[in-house]
Specification:
With 378 residues, this protein is of the alpha+beta class. It is flat and about 90 Å long.
């Protein structure tokens, strides 16, 4: 028989252990919440994952040219996408040997040369090639009131913009612009290579259809030089926000103000908490007025962009800007709670755990890239 005093001690130890564990969990949760925003998360520390392309993505031979050349005119010529679902850490998507090298090698395997000494060439200017598992227009369907319901739907998409030129000797002739988005059901890591293959085939099918007519590629179009093409594409990134050595402090009321490094409001204050940030504009009389629709702001050193109710740090890689930010703020989850210990006949009984269905407010952080055409994050 266990002595009463020993039984009481054991009960006390068990109860104290349970209570301590619960308090420890609450303390840890509170500590995590206080740093949940992670505005200083370095995008250079994102993981890298690779997708593979088929060595023969084109199901037909490309005629009337001798080779294909690619000009990579994307803001960031290294990354081809971001993974925002299914991984614990934000991750860039890349092609292992580089986008330009991989695509040039693969496409030239599909060329049926007309003459070995021919200088006829197809030039592709790559302006966008981006893999994503989270398109805005699809995600918007998941909002129900103010609560985001994650349906765990896996889908993969590619956004692509290319411009095609026909090269004969030293002359270049504009052919067409190819702009498309393809969406498939499934995971991006499994479908990424296939999506790139499909974009390449679809873009070149248009060229081959024209080539089969036998019409001249340089008819009814103006002649350009190699420098003309490069200058035209390089001017996209000849922006003060990319080229200026000094960032001007102030509030950007529009994307154009951001691009020109010319904020229209210079006297302001920023109030930040876990879930909501707010910019206040100081009027002439000293009154602070909230600027709820500001595009972003600069503190003189760093750039920030608004995403829903928060401002997140914009970080530059080459000519691209990335953030680790939150589009979703409210969602449903289970929260563990417990009852207080009870006493009966001088003996303490531990509290018991309960699981309550509550609405927990948190920022769901994911990586985004700034689209230079729209000023939006994708």
């Amino acid at each position: 028989m266990i002595p009463k005093n020993l039984s009481f001690k054991r009960t006390l130890i068990v109860a104290t252990t349970i209570l301590f564990s619960h308090l420890s969990a609450l303390s840890q949760s509170k500590a995590e919440s206080s740093s949940a925003k992670k505005e200083d998360y370095d995008v250079h520390k994102f993981k890298t994952v690779y997708v593979e392309l088929s060595t023969e993505p084109i199901s037909f031979k490309i005629s009337r040219i001798n080779s294909i050349a690619i000009i990579d005119s994307r803001p960031d010529t290294s990354e081809i996408g971001l993974i925002r679902r299914g991984l614990n850490e934000p991750s860039f998507i890349k092609l292992r040997q580089g986008t330009k090298t991989v695509m040039t090698n693969i496409l030239n395997h599909s060329v049926s040369p007309i003459q070995q000494d021919s200088l006829n060439k197809l030039v592709i200017v790559l302006k966008k090639l981006w893999l994503t598992d989270a398109l805005h227009r699809l995600e918007e369907k998941d909002w129900e009131g103010n609560i985001y319901i994650d349906h765990d739907t896996n889908y993969a998409a590619i956004l692509s913009t290319m411009e095609f030129y026909y090269n004969q000797n030293d002359d270049y002739y504009p052919l067409y612009r190819f702009d498309t988005t393809i969406v498939k059901s499934g995971k991006i890591m499994k479908l990424g290579g296939q999506l790139i293959n499909e974009v390449l085939e679809a873009s070149l099918a248009r060229f081959e259809k024209f080539a089969e007519t036998g019409r001249s590629f340089n008819a009814n179009t103006r002649k350009l030089s190699w420098n003309d093409i490069h200058s035209y594409n390089d001017q996209r990134f000849n922006l003060p926000i990319l080229t200026d050595t000094t960032l001007h402090k102030g509030v950007y009321q529009s994307f154009d103000e951001f691009k020109s490094n010319n904020p229209s409001t210079r006297d302001f204050e920023v109030s930040k908490d876990k879930l909501t940030d707010l910019i206040y504009i100081r009027d002439v009389d000293g009154t602070l007025t909230p600027a709820r629709n500001a595009w972003g702001y600069c503190d003189g050193t760093h750039l920030f962009i608004r995403l829903r109710d928060n401002f997140f740090l914009l970080q530059k890689i080459r000519n691209a800007f990335y953030i680790y930010g939150a589009q979703k703020v409210i969602y449903t989850k289970d929260v563990f709670g417990s009852t207080a210990p009870t006493y009966q006949n001088g003996v303490m009984s531990p509290g018991y755990g309960t699981t309550n269905r509550t609405i927990a407010r948190e920022l769901q952080l994911r990586p985004f890239v700034l689209d230079w055409d729209t000023g939006k994050l994708e």
